[in-house]
Amino acid sequence: MIGLIIVSAFVGCYIGLMRDPQPHRIPVAVTGARLASQVQEALGDSVDVHRAASASAAHDALLHRDVVAVLRSGPHAEGLALDTAGANGLSTTAAVTRLVTGYAHGAGRHLTVSDTVPLDRYDARGLAGFYLSFGVTLSGFALAQSVVGLANLLHLRHRFTLMAAFAAASGLVAAAIAGPVLGAVPAPYLPLAFVLALLAAAAAFTTKMLATYFGPLGIPVATLLLLTVGNSTSGATIGTDLLPRGARTLSELMPPGAAVRAIGDISYFQGSHVLAPLATLVLWGAGSAILLSLRTSGRTTPAPTPPQPAPVPHASGGDRPVPDPHPSGEIQRGPVPHPYGADRPTPVPYPYSYSNSYGEDRSVPDRGTAGTAVTVWSGGDAGRFTPDPGPARHRA
Fold it and tell me: Residues near 105 by Cβ (< 8 Å), separated by ≥ 6?
């Protein structure tokens, strides 16, 4: 049943969000008050028009990711120029280009389109950030599953150390492969590794926290939360401006969406808006760690059970437990006093009878030798030998 829920959610989220993306208030800077009013009136809620005082101000807003495109009058009075930032993603760039092209065609004006912030040559479709985020999230998720199985073997602080060390290593390795090795993500190496380490820590600690609180259901819940909902709403495959309102909200709150935005910011926009995504990742990781600590500290450790003596094979084939000679748990040291007050061997003449370790009565007949006696040492079976009444006998 859980598997069916996961596959339904996965297919529903990824395919459902891509089947009919609609632009919603895509931020566009427009120079000139008259042109801005005309564009807002023509395109409605599809765009969010930012009136720019000058072309340079509009250009700065584009470079700092405050807007995704700039619309201005072209070199000729009847022309329009649209400057886009392809680094915002193909879906967002294509949507705003299509909207402005439709406006220009309706207004009878020629439109020139240029890409001011293009994607890296090894990331032509702008999906490197998404796959990088997905892979790191998956690694943190897998680590947490392994740590769950070590709960009875490692102390909490050791598990925390293991997850934190793995998160740092995962960030360093993934950043090295995506950046210097493959050249698909043009972000500085150390800032990129830091973002990815925070993402791995958030995924690992969140998964471990859910498994601790929800038991066997925690791993499926983490799968739905991080790998399904989080990655499908990250805004890499479909820009956040094209997602439904609920998905846009989740994109801002979930670790994968925060990581994708942070990767894009430090790669193409000088880290202009990286603080908010970093805060989101820190809150997920630190918050989950605190909840784990509270859960663990609230548990009481049961008192250890004293070891029980092994059963002694009985002569009849059955196992009878050996009674505890010291019920109080204290170890008795020194000689055991004889029942008659002497710590010495006790001679017992033939014939005699005794009770063995199992409470059975045994008797030893006359050996036929006058004056022969068995010696019973104190602390052993002393006190359990009883001489038979009558004089000792011997065989002629």
Answer: 111
CA–CA separation, 107 and 97 (whole Å): 15
- Encoded tokens for 67: 């807007």
Helix (H, G, I), strand (E, B) or coil at 297: helix
Could you tell me the pLDDT band of residue 273, with boundaries at 50, 70 and 90? very high
Structure confidence at residue 2 as a pLDDT band (50, 70, 90): confident
Q: What are phi and psi of 346, to 5 degrees?
A: -115, 115
| Distance between CA atoms of residues 57 and 69, nearest Å | 12
Report the DSSP beta bridge partners of residue 112. Answer: 81
Instruction: Give the Cα separation of 2 and 305 in Å (integer).
Output: 38
Express each pLDDT in 313-333 by its tens digit.
Answer: 555 555 555 555 544 444 444
49 beta partners: 28
pTM: 0.72
The two structure tokens encoding residue 264: 């894009």
Surface-to-core class of residue 130, CB atoms within 10 Å of its CB (0-12 exposed, 13-18 middle, 19+ buried) = buried
> Long-range contacts for 265-268 (Cβ within 8 Å, ≥24 apart)?
265/65, 266/187, 266/188, 266/191, 266/192, 266/195, 267/87, 267/120, 267/129, 267/185, 267/186, 267/187, 267/192, 268/85, 268/87, 268/117, 268/119, 268/186
Q: Which residues contact 169 (CB under 8 A, 6 or more apart)?
A: none
What are 148-181's pLDDT values in tens digits?
Answer: 777 666 777 888 888 999 999 999 999 999 999 9
Q: Which two tokens stand for residue 356?
A: 């063995």
241 within 8 A of 92, measured Cβ to Cβ: yes
Closest CA to 63 of 97, 40, 29, 37: 29
